[in-house]
Amino acid sequence: MHAPEKNRSFTQLIEFEIEPRQQAALVSALSAHTERLAQGYPGFLSANIQASDDGRRVLNYLQWQSREAGEAAFQSFESGEQDFWQLIRAHRAKTVTFGSFQVLHSLALSHDNALHCTLIG
């Protein structure tokens, strides 16, 4: 049995390809941008910003309670409300790749080191 689609959390992945000298500044800018998203949009669950060892890539991982919540936040990116496109230009991203995913299976360790597995659909 599959869980209804609206009960699944939603993940957005945004990968930036940049020059290594831009990586630290981009991570800092994305951190501030992501904090604004967390405070300003309902349905925000979590975010991670990851930097590659070679300095050429940054991955922004955003998780939302629903597809609708994630898409509403992304629409604000496109309208310029959060200055996302300016952030891309300012850090001279060579490429930016967007991906959207429904969460179907989740693993996590609890505070007592027990492994919790959730099969969503």
From TrEMBL:
Chain coiled-coil ranges: none
Name this polypeptide is given: Antibiotic biosynthesis monooxygenase
Lineage of the species this protein comes from: Bacteria, Pseudomonadati, Pseudomonadota, Gammaproteobacteria, Pseudomonadales
Entry annotated with the keyword Oxidoreductase: yes
A GO MF term: monooxygenase activity
Superkingdom per UniProt: Bacteria
Tagged with keyword DNA-binding: no
Keywords of the record: Monooxygenase, Oxidoreductase
Domain ABM span(s) in chain numbering: 10-76
InterPro entries on file: ABM_dom, Dimeric_a/b-barrel
